[in-house]
What does this fold into?
Amino acid sequence: MSGPWWATRRFALAAVLLAALPLIWFPLPPLTDLPVQLGRYRVMLGGDDAELLHAFYRFEWRPIGYLGVDLLVAALAPLTGLEPAVKATVIAIPMLMTGAMLWISHEVHGRVQPMALLALPFAYHLGFQFGFLNYSLAVALALAGLALWLRLGRQGRIGQRALIFTLVGALVWTAHVFGWLILGLLAFAAEVARQRAAGHRWPIAIIRGSIGCLPLALPAIMFLGWQPGSSGTGSDWLASLPLKPGWLVMSLRDRWRWFDVATILIVALLIYRAIRHPQYRLAMAPGLAALLLLALFVAMPFGSAYGDARIAPLVWIMALLAVRSDETVPVSERAMIALVGLALLGVRTAAGTASFAMESNVWARHLAALDHIPRGARLVSFVQVPCTPAWRLPRTVHLPSMALARRAAFANDQPDLGSAALLQVTMPGITGFANDPSQIVTAAPCPETPDFRTLHQALRAVPLNRFDHVWLIDATALDRRDLVGLRVVWRRGDDFLLAVARPRLSPGPSTD
It folds into this structure.
């Protein structure tokens, strides 16, 4: 890269390193689903706790389309330990995504454009904040794959590209099948744009673009023998339509509503200005990709594991990467746009670091209970949440899995992904208290979330004869009557560790 400061290699390297800054200070990245992943990795690795863990879970490797971080942790953890391996892998994801976005801008426009800097904060997109690690890794790989696809196409190395992307497609599919779908869509948009630039009409460009993407189709063979598991949640597409604009606004949702919404508003206004300004151009490859992603976002049902919400940030990213400042745009204006992007990146990096610091402190306060949980405990946990979700992401709802990761205890918040899951619960006699969201409770009945029990209902319904400890987090609604048969072992504020007042059961059979 050469030219103005925002198009130099030095800036690109600085931006990639800056992407790591919000997460390097803390023992673990405080992402919502990270404890769930950490617990699964603990069972995967086994080690000295294998016998304890096998009383509760069965882990079996399967050729499924969401293995990316699992495989990396399996390779790194024996060298570094589990938590350092997870931390390093998680930090690498926004770094890879940042580098990929700058690379795409360079390949599309010949040099990094000022508007590309506005895309960089989206490395910490909503899916990453939720801790969807395999998906986030696959998206970062898909963006890097698009940059490579563009480069090989620009160089006319089509045959070599076909061979390389037979492997790249399989790699992204292995990381997460949804990332593979996104890579296919991005590559299709880029290839149609290339065919149009070669003078072909739209129908021919679409046909030739589809044929050009065939090397990416190899992983589709896997669907002959595997279907994604389902937790049984249904989707009402029509009912989800009014929620779509909200997910676009929440693409950078973290902690402060006004700040996150203001960021999206700035991005939207600058995209609108670029579209309307006669001296700005939209490159066809990322522009068409943005339109196709928007169509997929509208068509995707929300109930498919936040499927539509995951796509929303990519719409913004591709729209920003499409904008080209024509040479007739004054250098001072291009520099001003770049400075706005740099300022936004700096402010969001600082705010993200502060947000993670606050959440890390919250985690540390709750996780003090782990020091009092016996290894291999038959633990049932309940995390109280408000009926109406706050803008701040609910980062404590999966803390129970930290007991699995650090104490080899049972955790009732692992998701049920059906027969395709790597991890399955085998602990007997705990129907209704085996998987997520059995750990989530409320203070009072909530019309918005009728599937969640109240804390009172959960404590009265849980089969205490199958557990020896109960962990309560933020249990403001606890009543003395709920403590029948329980003894307080540890307390801090509204967090309680309770022992069941009956003999601990020996491990039972592995069927319910």
